[in-house]
Structure prediction request, 169 residues.
Amino acid sequence: MVEKVIPIRIAEGTGLVPSIPTELVPASNLTQDTRSRPLRDLRISVTDRCNFRCTYCMPKEIFDQNYPYLSHQELLSFEEITRLSTIFATTGIEKIRLTGGEPLLRKNLEVLIAMLAKIRTPSGRPLDLTLTTNGSILRKKAAALKVAGLQRITVSLDGLDDAVFKKNE
Prediction:
């Protein structure tokens, strides 16, 4: 079953932009799931675009040339992502996974990673920064991502054989 992804858009001028206080106060309790387990991981989608059309994620029937992808202005800026990540770190988040679409399609992603690498948990440890990618442009970006502070990469592969991969595309 394929569900259609409907991006949330904030209408300009409607006052729906969330306000974030300038002074952050450490949270008194950790964020928990419905079973009272502490939440330590945060997934941030940095783009809704992808250069593949895998059947399980972005089927061609939905994500065609007429699909209303978010404009650059509608994406969170690197500063907004960093600010929100800082807030989440005060609530017990220790790991941030950057995803997409295909996150490596986001221009200057290494700048965001460098910004996130400066965030510390309340105990002073750096966040565990990781990225999930289809790997198609990883060769061009890997060195810059590492220098920026990325610690781990997950490459999502449908198959090592080209025929198997194209079957799922």
